[in-house]
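This section describes the prediction task in plain terms. A model, or a person checking by hand, is given the sequence of a single protein chain and must write out its three-dimensional structure as a string of tokens. No templates, partner chains or ligands are provided. The sample shown here is typical of the held-out split.
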Amino acid sequence: MKPVLLLASANQGKLRELRTILAGLPVENRPPTVDAGADQTVASGAGFTLSATGSDPENQPLGYQWVQLSGPPAILRSPGSPLTDVDGVTGPATLTFRVTVTDDVGQIATDTVTVTVQSPPQPK
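The expected answer:
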């Protein structure tokens, strides 16, 4: 446990302010975590959604960034959001995407997800 210094001020017997200050010790910032979701299988040409869940131990806001690592080129509609729609790709194909989350001091976490695109239906 780290030592702390509590500061309080009062006005006419009423507590007005209470602050906790770490006594000159650096505050540890732990890295965020992220989950890119389960792998998916989609029909040829069907759009799909990538959905990431990130968290920060200090409850600070996170920035998100999706990138495609492999497979035929796909269009990510909102790559800077936890959820991004992806335009359909003709199968058969396997696409891999990585999501990176960044906390307020620049620490990162990454995860990947694979999307398998099925072959198009064969004409009868």
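For orientation: The first strand starts at residue 4 and ends at 11.
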